[in-house]
Write a structure and sequence with these properties.
The chain is mainly α. The chain is built from 19 helices and no strands. Helix 2 runs antiparallel to helix 4, helix 7 packs antiparallel against helix 8 and helix 8 packs parallel to helix 12. The chain is elongated, with a radius of gyration of 41 Å. It starts with a helix and ends with a helix.
Length: 369
């Protein structure tokens, strides 16, 4: 008991160890690896934009984002979606995890997160940061507003990059999530709604009147996001950042599929075509269990079988019924008729009451008397 109290977790029987390792242990390793990979990706994509911006500001340490966006990015905008993925995500369900124990091997061989995977996450983050900066930079040099003026202010450029970054990382975590729950939907889409709510609130007249030194950019978000050209730039940047990773993932699953990919595909196909079969199996198991339970609690037929009465009466009854149905003109029918008469008469003597002594005697004894 002291060992149980001092341990992190315990199990009462060794049969629970199988599920603990093959289901919960494998899920924990899978979630942690996805959590770390996505965490490095989004932070590289967020931070390295300042590196590309340094070539245009003379490395003067000027930030491309608003200071409040830098503060709230990891705290509010992207913290809850990655937390939901780290808590609820699963590649295959528990039944298939137990059915295919070989799915546990990637954890033993350290395949889901290693130096190679870290390098790939870093490369994806660096590429995303490069596209996040240079696509809006090149687009704003050619795109103009509806009134003919250019997007020349730094705050419009910052809002465009920040909005695109939040949308890109939200779409990416949606593509990396294998098991969607209500919590995942709430955190992912709720984070986007909270971002726009905070963005418009910080650049409103109300906060400027209360804290003029902390919120100086009045109406910058509304003026920026009300332009159709800005949304086209955001859509173009999001597509260019997400589609290459999506294509690589599709080719990897199609050409170099692992056991996890095969089991996941099998699970999806069973989910589409298997509910009827599962319901039939459940009904059959339930009916057999009920009939066995009812039969085991009934009075048995052992006494009747061992006494021989059931067999004797069934033979006589079948013979009597045969007598009625057999044709008398046939010689086979005549033979069967004679046998049936003898058996019926003997049955009458046997079934007579014990008190009648003349009925219990055989015909030979009666002649002797």
């Amino acid at each position: 008991m002291q060992a149980v109290l001092a341990s992190d977790y315990s199990f009462a029987q060794f049969q629970y160890l199988r599920r603990l390792l093959l289901v919960h242990g494998r899920w924990s390793y899978f979630r942690m690896c996805n959590f770390l990979g996505y965490f490095f990706y989004k932070n590289f994509a967020f931070t390295l934009v300042h590196f590309w911006y340094g070539f245009f500001c003379g490395f003067s340490a000027q930030a491309v984002y608003d200071q409040w966006f830098i503060t709230l990015f990891n705290i509010i905008y992207t913290s809850l979606p990655v937390l939901a993925m780290g808590l609820f995500d699963q590649d295959v369900n528990d039944q298939n995890s137990l059915r295919y124990p070989s799915l546990y091997k990637p954890g033993q061989q350290n395949l889901l997160f290693n130096k190679r995977q870290f390098f790939l996450c870093t490369l994806q983050g660096v590429t995303t940061s490069f596209l996040l900066f240079f696509i809006p930079y090149g687009a704003f040099s050619a795109v103009v507003k509806e009134d003919g003026s250019n997007f020349s202010d730094q705050q419009t450029f910052a809002v465009t990059i920040a909005t695109t970054l939040v949308i890109v990382v939200s779409v990416q975590i949606g593509l990396d999530t294998h098991y969607w729950t209500a919590v995942n939907h709430l955190f992912v889409w709720g984070s986007l709604i909270v971002y726009f709510a905070i963005l418009f609130s910080m650049q409103s007249y109300g906060l400027f009147g209360l804290f003029p030194n902390n919120f100086p950019f009045i109406g910058a978000a509304y003026n920026c996001l009300s332009e159709k050209g800005v949304w086209l730039v955001i859509l173009l940047t999001t597509t260019v950042c997400v589609v290459p990773g999506l294509v690589v993932s599709f080719l990897k699953v199609d050409l170099f599929s692992t056991l996890t990919d095969k089991v996941r595909y099998l699970q999806q196909s069973r989910k589409r075509h298997g509910p009827q079969e599962q319901s039939l199996r459940r009904v059959r198991r339930t009916s057999s269990r009920r009939s066995g339970y009812a039969f085991s609690h009934q009075q048995g037929y052992g006494e009747l079988i061992t006494s021989g009465k059931n067999m004797r009466r069934s033979t006589v009854s079948s013979a009597c019924s045969l007598e009625k149905t057999t044709n008398g003109s046939n010689w086979i029918g005549n033979v069967l008729k004679r046998k049936n008469e003898v058996s019926c008469s003997s049955q009458e003597f046997i079934a007579a009451p014990e008190g009648n002594s003349s009925a219990t005697k055989t015909p030979r004894q009666q002649r002797t008397d």
